[in-house]
Amino acid sequence: MTVVVTGIGLVSALGANADQTWQRLLRGDSAIALRQPFSELEPRPLAMLGKQPAHLDPLLTAAAQATIQDAGLSGQLPNCGVVIGSSRGHQAQWERFLTTGLIDDWAASLPHMGAIAVARHLGSQGPVLAPMAACATGVWAIAQGADLIRSEQCDRVLVGAGEAAITPLTLAGFEQMRALATTGCYPFDQRREGLVLGEGAALLLLESEHVARDRSARIYARLLGAGLTADANHVSAPDATSYAGGLAAIRTCLERSQLAPETVDLIHAHGTSTRLNDLYENELIQAVFPPSVWVTGTKGATGHTLGASGAISAVMCVLALHHQIVPPCVGLRDPAFDLRLPQTAVPTSLTTALCFSFGFGGQNAVIAMSRP
Predict the structure, then answer these.
(1) Are 81 and 156 in contact (CB under 8 A)?
(2) Is the separation of the CB atoms in 204 and 159 below 8 Å?
(3) Which of 120, 144, 158, 362 is the most exposed place for a label (fewest CB within 10 A)?
(4) Which residues does the UniProt record annotate as the domain Ketosynthase family 3 (KS3) (predicted)?
(5) 3-class DSSP state of 7
């Protein structure tokens, strides 16, 4: 059964909706700025939606409303499945509990309640899933939603992820790991120095193709296959010795999508701007794909939204296919690798795209899509 994308919703530090984010991205804008949201911590480059840290549920419901509207639907959707993940969930609320000693409505802060909040908003009585796979969460959610349609459990599923990751514990944890940048985010650049945390949510409405065509829906893209693996190697670092987990995810995705490496036009890399991750992805891409494939990453514009990053990357791939434009790798000035990395937006013919997402614990997720 063919699964298609008929609606997208995106809230990012770069823009309040998908169109605003996309247009600013094409201009090469970045939402990253020096911020100090917590007085007890030093200022850091961050990609925030506002002056104060965002909250998860409003992010997700705003993205859900935008997605449903974009898909040309309205009202309650009782038969719509929901697969929405987050790697941090309502961690900010638990941190406030610890500092204030007040625990109000603690049940609403459980890890799966973001997905539940969206399901209630939609009136959904279908399957509701809330995957957590570190920074690979967003792609996991999309793959699981597509499987619900292919297995004929649902005709349509709202999928994606959100993250309100700007919290004292998250900042302190990444600082302890020495993973945070001090000046900015520069994916695949010689001067890359670490990641920049960001906030955001990205959702997609998936439908079976026959349901979408029956209602004359606009079809942005077809979802092909996915590859989901784990390294079983280290709590935070990828397996940079054998690259086995990452390679397996790529090759499984290509096989399930019936794609050859030379037929892939665009790869949206995870592109965290850390020394290790960018090197790791370079080795994976060089091992599998020809030099002609475009490789981009958008965390230099949106920041690293952790669990939501894969969903945001997937929306960027959908928009790239829809508009036939390779978005720039914002923050890149002096490439460190021999990859086809765009420093400005490039109008070109695009038929297929892959989205890479890698997370702590050796989570590897790759998903493929094509023009309808």
Answers:
(1) yes
(2) yes
(3) 120
(4) 1-371
(5) strand
Residue 200 near residue 163, CB atoms below 8 Å: yes
For 72, phi then psi, to 5°, come to 80, 25
Return d(Cα 211, Cα 261) in angstroms, integer.
31
Identify residue 4 by its one-letter amino acid code.
V
Of the candidates 78, 131, 79, 87, the one whose C-alpha atom is nearest the C-alpha of residue 306 is 87
Q: What is the pLDDT of residues 233-249, one digit of tens each?
A: 777 667 667 789 999 99
Beta-sheet strands, E only, within 164-220: 200-208
Query: Structure tokens of 369?
Result: 């899509």
Domains contained in the chain, CATH given: 3-214 (3.40.47.10), 223-370 (3.40.47.10)
Cβ pair 88, 171 in contact under 8 A: no
The gap between the terminal CA atoms of the chain, to the nearest Å, is: 14
- Contact present, 156 and 80 (Cβ < 8 Å): yes
- CB neighbours of residue 241 within 10 Å: 8
Cα–Cα distance between 1 and 210 in angstroms, integer? Answer: 9
Q: Which amino acid is at 356?
A: F
> Do the Cβ atoms of 116 and 106 come closer than 8 Å?
no
Q: What whole-number distance in Å separates Cα of residue 281 and Cα of residue 262?
A: 17
Tokens at 135, concatenated: 């920074």
Q: What is the tens place of the pLDDT at every residue in 10-21? A: 999 999 999 999
Are 227 and 252 spatial neighbours (Cβ–Cβ below 8 Å)? Answer: yes
User: In the numeric block, which tokens belong to residue 97?
Assistant: 């509990």
Separation between Cα atoms, residue 370 and residue 372, nearest integer Å: 6
Q: Write out pLDDT tens, residues 268-312.
A: 999 999 999 999 999 999 999 999 999 999 999 999 999 999 999
Which residues, including other chains, have CB under 8 Å from residue 106's CB and lie 6 or more apart? 97
Q: Which two tokens stand for residue 63?
A: 């993205």
Range of lowest pLDDT (58-67, 96-105, 215-224): 96-105
pLDDT at 311: 98
Largest CA distance in the chain: 57
Distance CA(259)–CA(157), nearest Å, equals 25
